[in-house]
Write a structure and sequence with these properties.
With about 160 residues, the protein is mainly α. It has helices at about 5-20, 30-50, 55-75, 85-115, 135-155; strands at about 25-30, 80, 125-130, 130-135. Helix content is about 70%, strand content about 10%.
Amino acid sequence: MSTREQVKSEINKLISASKESLGEIKAFAISEAWKILQLLTATVVQVIENIATDLAGEEKKQLAMELIGEFYDAIFDRIDLPILPSALESLLHEYIKRILMLLVDSAIDAMVATFKDVGEFDIATVATEGETKPQPVADCVDDFLKHITEIARVDK
């Protein structure tokens, strides 16, 4: 199995677990969707950095964008825009996705630039008694699932 396939497998597991974790929630406020996408971006980058060490930077970014887009399609059935009627929201769904994905694209660039600047490009590390070691992919996914349920359940 190639590293791309391994990463996709891990993110597909995350998508399935997210669907289960979020239960019956079908509509998300745009602010909730953006918060979840920010967490997802960090998680996907961590998974890619842990598994796909053989890919070039642009390949990693392309893979991240593809996987985040798949997550969006699987999880966000509807983005709730309080000022618009529901019928209009569904018509604008693809445009909302495009806007959010542009933000995700920029977030990936900013994240990578920041980690390069501070010399901590190995973002998937955990400090343990003065040393760092790679954070297991399962821990990244568990952290993500914990946080998305907190975000999605606020004010519900």
